């Protein structure tokens, strides 16, 4: 039985100079013909799904350290506290003049003596690193007779000052004032203190603190270590911004891309739909500032070499929440948003939205090739709205591929209805989701073997093995889940003529502020680590090749016989043969690979292995590489490649042509 027991066996990978005939007496022979191409692998095959869940954006990828910087939470002062008795803070409502940023604060210092401070707690604290610089800024104005000075401090968990500077925000009209701090020590949960000196009155908004060292050192940019983990995967695409936040709990809190570009103080904040979704992980301070907006998503895609895949609301709020609908006759603004987004990405300077993109600092086109209409929607209401979007988009942009939802599950009534309807309607790409037990993934490696080769392409848009149950807070990113995903992915790759894209989900999780688990990459305020699942995804992405070739056992694809899953591909760009071999059993496995034309390859192969004898093993902040790739070289002796691999292992074998 698969996944029974664990044996403590050291890594053993060897090549023996045996003939296949001799080996057949004791082992299995897998045949590979690198010249017989069965499917082309799309460059987009393995990518990234991003959603602002688990504080993945604010408090995560977006490097802003101040929570509720513009006082737009339901409680306008949430995240802020005051200290000292000679000051008063009032929230000022200016919604009649600034609907996009309706709140500012007024700080009234009543005496020249004494002390008064405004304190921000950050996103479960602020991660500060010794020697690093931090940029503080604020939009402010003072009353004409006001003489208030600011002292800006970072204090560690014990209250010790670890960075300080002064700022004099002069002026009676709104202006941005900035200062730099340099940390003298590190802290994982620091706080920002703004102390006021001198009698007077100051209005303040957009109080901000960013590390100077961001991704590509962009001002107000992204957290460098998190982006680096994405770049290291060399993903084929980046899907954004979700996920259920595309829909919103109701339509007024849906994601609207046009409100996420331009000056950050004009980006209208909304509550995050994961704020109160799970009773076991209520997060009342979870909002979206949209500092990470569509322009940033497009630039991130470009930075990491990924095709952008934006998903837009189709006039339906989340069907697990309000299920609010826009009437069919009132869909024009939603459809226009889709058309304008394509123009924003691809339009020239003569177009309205292409011109805006250039004005925002990116004159070159983003070359958008695909667009999602709706996220995890289902039922006849979705089909009706999709038809309207499809007609309008294809009429103006016939080459743009539309990604289409097949609902929440990989089977059942919702899936069957949508799968049948959209195939009949000639959909480009069908988005299938599966959050299931590890056993389901091992049992579904043949899922796409009998799919229509002439039908829509498949996007495995959200998947992750659930160690306990769907959405359980006890789910773990353990080795059994990751190994089962590796086994399942052999089926995705073997059927690359049907499956064009795949992405694990969710992507990020803050260790102190998550709502959903498992997740691909975990982080705190200073550090991050990749899970075993991350390394599985990374190995597939880095070793996908360009074309599938047959890897057979007894003339059959290797889809779980004796607990083994395998696939092979060639890379025409690098002249390599890539073998992926997954052993889900508790025993050593020795396999002979009868590679046609083996003599054409160099005598040394590269072996990369993920392995643990413990199926419940996990990585963590304290031990980030309990399970991580181990690379070795393998000398090929004789006419055949014979490899012995450990129990519970995922191995990539790379042979390079001479």
From TrEMBL:
Question: From what organism does this protein derive?
Answer: Mucilaginibacter gynuensis
State the reactions this protein catalyses: Hydrolysis of terminal non-reducing alpha-L-arabinofuranoside residues in alpha-L-arabinosides
* Flavoprotein recorded as keyword: no
Query: Keywords for this entry?
Result: Glycoprotein, Hydrolase, Signal
Q: Which family does it belong to?
A: Belongs to the glycosyl hydrolase 51 family.
**Keyword DNA-binding appears in the UniProt entry:** no
Q: EC number(s) of the enzyme? A: 3.2.1.55
Lineage runs: Bacteria, Pseudomonadati, Bacteroidota, Sphingobacteriia, Sphingobacteriales
Protein's name in the database: non-reducing end alpha-L-arabinofuranosidase
Residues annotated as signal peptide: 1-24
SMART domains membership: Alpha-L-AF_C
**Residue ranges of every copy of the Alpha-L-arabinofuranosidase C-terminal domain listed in the record:** 461-649
Kindly give the SUPFAM superfamilies that the UniProt entry links to this protein.
Answer: (Trans)glycosidases, Glycosyl hydrolase domain
